[in-house]
Amino acid sequence: MLANFLNKSKPINFIGLTVFFFLGYLSFVFNTFSAEEFGLNTLLKSVFILAFFIVIFFIFNFIMVKNRLTFDNSFAFFFFILLTFSVLPVIASYKVLILFVIYLLFVRKIYSLRSVNKVLEKLFDAGFWLGILFILDSRTLLFIPLIYFAIYIHHKITIHTTLTPIIGFTTPLFIFFTYNYWYNQTEVFTELFEPNFSLNLGFYTNSKYLFFINFLFVLSFVSLIFKSLKTLTINNTFRRNWVLLMLHTLIAILYLFLVADKDGSETIYLLFTIAIILANGIEMITKKLFKNIALYAMILCAIGFYFFL
């Protein structure tokens, strides 16, 4: 049964779930070839995009396992695969996937702050990756409070921990400004500080993504309630990361609502937290029968959303 397969975090689970995604990806590639003229460029693009996804899967799995964001199982990776497959048509582009990789590298440093080792180095790296992300998508500046909240719940806020992320953040910005100044294109740099925000939710209310967002919000809310009732009563590292995860989700939702040019690709900033929240929710189900029903239902929902909605 599926629950037994996912109940332990093993290399075979990662391989099996990646193969599952690959089968779904083949359908996307087939549709691409049907819509475009078949050629070597299209084939190479599909291969490179698949390579990006594999890198993303490795980073996600590393963050989850290294920082113990779930128990020793593969439920989070399972949900991450399903969510990624669900929005595959709108995120399968170089620009979005590069953003996704950089975002996960930023997130990796945030959750690694649970350890007391090399704190300032991690804070610099977190600021650095967010700085690069800001250059590519200036609206991601919304995530900067996540750094300081992580400092607050895991370590003490001092002058060093306060300034180090700022130094890391400004380092790529300084390089980017220097480059644009050299080529007399400073307006490109100043445009970063004019992010395009809008509360217009027309895209979601008039597309199938309304169902997708509502469905995830309901499941995530239920998972958050039941897991929090147990987690928040115990003062440990997981509780601190769980609180951090909730704030992370709120910021990602805020980004989702505020971004002006909505097309569904902005959901990449939600996939990480939602997958982990759902995994912690499914862990609360003690009956394997009910757990299997929930897992198979999620597969059907993902396939239905991708192919039929």
UniProtKB/TrEMBL annotation:
The chain crosses the membrane at residues 12-30, 42-63, 75-106, 126-151, 163-182, 209-229, 241-260, 266-282, 289-308. Coiled coil: none annotated. The keyword Hydrolase does not apply. Keywords: Membrane, Transmembrane, Transmembrane helix. This is Uncharacterized protein.
